[in-house]
């Protein structure tokens, strides 16, 4: 798919992204090490895309950042503060994760799906939660469909609801793991445009993606992982136009 970035965003909600630093992060499943001393710096308000072959550890690494799976060593710094020392529940309000499957409540409307998270996690009153949920659904272009249930929304629209739900927590960083790979091809672009809009409006984003066009257009930094390590990192043009390592050269020749 070719990806062209949307028009510059001049209005709407502005996000205040924080810095995210991964320092020598290692992770294992039981005793098999799958992430090996990964260091990545994401500056506030910038987007880093992680690319790499299947099984290279991209999902595991994102799960380590918000501690759905605990790193075995190293550190993750959110706005300079160790994420590994925070309460995981608190960390997950500050770092939103959106993955392939949206996990919306089927019996609740889009508005209720977002508002419920605000009441449960942030302890908001019902009226406040409905007000904030409506604003975030507006941000993702679903203001008109806030009373639809998930089954009455397209896959792309459901993914937008999931993104609105994460944004409602006012995260400082958003993690995306193949957020568009379960979508029908014609719906992919809308969600990618939404993500690009968040990037333009100041969110800090760490995005695992197979969409090389998106990585090239939207990323400030691209990281190529293989076998649990960072093999190469740099600007999109450094990685896509002048890959240094044979492994990245081979990977690009297979996916581009
Ligand atoms: N729950 C698990 N238990 C044991 N090993 C796992 C588990 N999840 C992943 N792994 C292994 O960890 C390694 C990294 O997997 P991971 O899912 O992070 O890769 P990935 O880069 O996200 O791949 P893909 O592009 O296919 O999503 C792989 O070798 C995988 O088999
Ligand atoms: Mg994965």
Automatic annotation (TrEMBL):
Entry annotated with the keyword Nucleotide-binding: yes
Pfam families in the cross-refs: ABC_tran
Keywords: Amino-acid transport, ATP-binding, Cell membrane, Membrane, Nucleotide-binding, Transport
Domain ABC transporter residue range list: 20-252
InterPro entries: AAA+_ATPase, ABC_ATPase_HisP-typ, ABC_transporter-like_ATP-bd, ABC_transporter-like_CS, MetN_ABC_transporter-like, P-loop_NTPase
MF terms (GO), sorted A to Z: ATP binding
Topology with respect to the bilayer: Peripheral membrane protein
Compartmental location: Cell membrane
Family annotation (Gene3D superfamilies): P-loop containing nucleotide triphosphate hydrolases
Main localization, broad class: membrane
Family: Belongs to the ABC transporter superfamily.
Protein name, per record: Amino acid ABC transporter ATP-binding protein, PAAT family
Organism: Plantibacter cousiniae
